[in-house]
């Protein structure tokens, strides 16, 4: 079953929510989700989709909230050699880049 992440994000925006979209743009090795995977996040904490099967969603959501506040898109780089990746639980041996942007 495929979720319509952009549709969900648009519906949330229509309800007046601030929304950010995180998209996996590049992967290497054993990454948890393929390129193109998306996560929608609202300022109030609603989430739909996934960029990592759960292991880095919290870190991405934190950056999304910052992006919603200042409007600046960010490119995040997670990998097992990155100390922060271990902190957020990305111990699967892969790497991924996630682009986070404010919707609208």
Average of pLDDT: 85
Rounded Rg: 13 Å
Helix content: 25-40%
Question: Strand sequence of the main sheet, in spatial order?
Answer: 3-2-1-5-4
List unreliable stretches of 5+ residues. Answer: none
Count of beta strands:
5
**What share of residues are in beta strands?**
25-35%
The first-to-last residue Cα distance is 27 Å
Count of all domains: 1
| Shape assignment | globular
The main pleated sheet reads as: 5 strands, antiparallel
One letter per element, helices H and strands E, the order comes to HEEEHEHE
Query: Which structural category do the helix and sheet elements fall into?
Result: alpha+beta
SS element count, helices: 3
Q: What does this 3D model show about the protein?
A:
The termini are far apart. The chain has a five-stranded antiparallel sheet with strand order 3-2-1-5-4, with helices on both faces. It contains three helices and five strands; from the N terminus they run H-E-E-E-H-E-H-E. The protein has one domain (5-102). It is α+β, with helices and mostly antiparallel strands and 104 residues long. Strand 2 and strand 3 (47-49) form a beta hairpin.
């Amino acid at each position: 079953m495929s979720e319509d992440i952009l549709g969900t994000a648009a519906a949330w925006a229509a309800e007046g929510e601030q929304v950010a979209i995180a998209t996996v743009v590049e992967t290497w090795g054993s990454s948890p989700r393929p390129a193109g995977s998306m996560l929608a996040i609202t300022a109030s904490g609603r989430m739909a989709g996934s960029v990592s099967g759960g292991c880095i969603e919290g870190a991405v959501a934190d950056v999304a909230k910052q992006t919603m506040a200042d409007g600046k898109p960010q490119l995040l780089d997670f990998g097992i050699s990155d100390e922060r990746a271990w902190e957020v639980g990305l111990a699967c041996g892969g790497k991924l880049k996630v682009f986070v942007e404010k919707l609208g």
